[in-house]
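User: My advisor, Dr. K., asked me to get a structural model of this assembly before our group meeting. I'm new to this, so sorry if the format is off. These are the inputs:
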Amino acid sequence: MRIFLVKRVFTLILTLLVATLVVFVVLEILPGDPAAVMLGVNAEAETLNALREEMGLNRPVWVRYTHWVASLLTGNLGISYTYDVPVSELILSRITVSFPLAILAMTLSTLIAIPLGIIAASNHNKPMDFLVMSFSQIGIAIPNFWFAMLLTIVFSVTFRLLPAGGFAGWDAGIIPVLKSFLLPTIALALPQAAILSRVTRSALLEVLKEDFIRTARAKGVTNQGTLWKHALRNALIPVVTIMGLQFSFLLAGTIIIENVFYLPGIGRLIFQAISQRDLIVVKNLVILLAGAVIMINFVVDLLYAVIDPRLRGGSDA
Amino acid sequence: MTLLKVQDLCVSLKTAYGRQDVISNINFCLNAGEKLGIVGESGCGKSITALALMSLLPPDSKTRGRIILEGRDILNLNSKEICSIRGNRIGMIFQEPMTALNPVKQIGAQISESIDLHLKLNRKQTLERVTELMDKVGLPVDRFGLNLYPHQLSGGQRQRVMIAMAIACNPDILIADEPTTALDVTVQEQILNLIRDLADSSGMALIMISHDLGVIAQTAQNVMVMYTGNIVEMGSTVDVYQNMLHPYTFGLFSAIPHAGSSSHLERKRLTSIPGQVPQLHQRPIGCNFADRCMRASKICKTKEPMATRVSDHHQVWCYHPLKEKI
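Assistant: The format is fine. Below is the predicted structure of the whole assembly, which you can bring to the meeting.
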């Protein structure tokens, strides 16, 4: 187990380094000079050059790269070209919206999906299974922006129970924050839960066909007992895999939902930064998201090893 | 004393050609401490018979007849009652030790599971029982910890764990379904001896299922030869092996390759039974073996043969048993 951990941490660091390299190179190749964008088309060549010097754009590529990697480690990421505030401050204010939202959505999705998947699998080919699968089919088919608008119309416009959008800010206290998070969380969680419940069900059904399930029943374990004590843990590998992918998506890919609910999250920031060529923000946001995805995969790998002793490697498992 | 009585057992399964009987008219008794062998080719219904005794058949199967264990018909029990028999009164060992153990559970926990279910023991007693079982099956706990996982054991060791699980609650009957088929030849002998010794010392009845006549000869007092879902010959192992009556039994024996029986110069072809085992939906009317049988006559293809009792311990389902002149 220890060897496995050391190996895995080493790969993690290496992957993060490669990610910084890729992000840097891609943004280097992209056309467009941030200094020219800031000054507009009529800028004098001298002014432009002065600004380039000030922004460090005239220095050699490798110096800028190492400087950037060092800045990632210290957290001193520089000043945003367009917002004129420190990038770290900007990103932090957005993460404190996106990250809790992703956690809430993932939690809700898991709490719905795994019990539903278990219910469906233990009632395989019975009405309950059919019912659960129909709901999840609908959940997958509905686009989440439309579902989000539907939620707004029902809960905000008709019943006036919850805000239609916007973020109260953490200073306003926990209740207003939760209120502004509630509808986005539901809108994000339900489609994810629909997929996750199907994955849970099919993974369980697959495991229930295994020989060791028959062995357990031959020992006198009841059907429910075999499901909980023998099948569930074996079925968790595909479930955890999908959960990892979904969590990555929820962190980075919530731009549509953030727009529907006017939430100041990472998705909207990255969209604005790209359209305004605020490259320093784009660069740091992209590496942050890439880093988050790599970290999630790392955690998923550790979970694999916790779930299945065969994946721990080494003889001391 | 009769422990288990199987009467007119038929099992049908749903197939692409509709519902088909996989086994039919299975009748036999098992006495306490008896060792019964069931032998036949793959697909003859040996395993289905065993699974029927445990009520472990697939959910879309239908079972008719009676399986009486101590006056109670297993087929009429509810699921709670059947769970109290499985692993407790009847233990079962499966063919494939590689897949028959739960890969994410430690072997100690897998062995203690049936003890926890059926015997009212406290933690310490359970641990003692597991240690005792591990010793019995040749996996002493000081060398093979209880917290090992199945993938850390060899095939033979896993089969020993299976055996420990099956005998954990001192069952009256142990069913071993091809327990050595998936193992190396060198290990097969050890596992067979272990099973036989355990049955001898505890007095439990043994049902040994195998396609291997040698395995049956080593372990069983009585033998039941099955072909396409029917019993074709049944009797004491000595009777059946020395005075086989059914042409199919004869065919099975002739098909055993004999090492050294033919010299390097005159290498004989291995003997085989002509024709093929009929598919489930193509089983003929009359005797199922008739199409492949040298001795078959008209009646064999029109009417199913009834049991002919040759001696107290020997029955055959054939119109033209071998000792009779054609």
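One thing worth pointing out at the meeting: The mean pLDDT of chain A is 89.

User: Perfect, thanks a lot.
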